[in-house]
Amino acid sequence: MPPKENAEFVACMEDILEVYETPYNPMRPVVCMDEKPYQLLGDERKPLPMRPGASQKIDSEYVREGTCSIFVFTEPLSGTRHVSVRERRTAADWAEEIKYLVDVMYPDMDKIVLVMDNLNTHRPASLYKVFAPQEARRIIKRLELHYTPKHGSWLNIAEIELNVMTRQCLSRRIDTISRLKEELQCWKNERNQKVSRVNWHFRLDNARIKLISLYPKFEIQQQ
Fold first, then answer.
1. What are the φ and ψ backbone dihedral angles of 102, each rounded to 5 degrees?
2. Has residue 220 got a pLDDT over 60?
3. Which residue from 87, 78, 147, 75 is spatially nearest to 118, judged by alpha carbons?
4. Strands lying side by side in the sheet with 30-43
5. Predicted confidence (pLDDT) per residue in 64-112, tens digit
6. Residue ranges in 101-155 assigned as alpha helix (H)
7. How far apart are CA 85 and CA 42, in angstroms?
8. CA-CA distance, 14 to 211, in Å (whole number)?
9. What is the pTM of this model?
């Protein structure tokens, strides 16, 4: 949590919570985005196969096969998500993912309300590093951006989705990007078919009571 009486944190937090309390509008979907670095690991020795009544035996030694980055977009109220894997997590990678969000995932929406953390790559400027000015501006105009505050990544619902992904799909060794993509595609399809939603309970009125220490003290000026 941030230091007490932090006006910047409070302002960003209240903005995010107000977004989450907005009634569902299919033409203005609220989408949360986050990234996760992932370590590819292989087996030093071939695992022993499973047998009736016995699980697969895996040696404790492993081989590092490099790293990659997992991008996730989730729309909590509709119960849908998109997952992709990239070799890096640069400004260009983010820009290309945002173009996919706008042109493929939500091509006909009036506006996409996008919640994400405040990494320096998660900025409109990143689009101008990859696309022509007219194209970058076109993409930006389709978005309404909301940033979680510093020390407030827990306000991003996409972080909850990443935690579910880690428990259900990534708690084992995966050695190649191609295999990781296949596994995540299966996981994503199953979650989408089940229409798995996130029921967010923490609301604006809760924050003003439970996190009162974060709010700056103020004096009501007499007229």
1. -75, -45
2. no
3. 147
4. 80-86, 62-75, 30-43, 112-116, 143-147
5. 778 999 999 999 999 999 999 999 889 999 999 999 999 999 999 989 9
6. 124-128, 133-141
7. 18
8. 11
9. 0.87
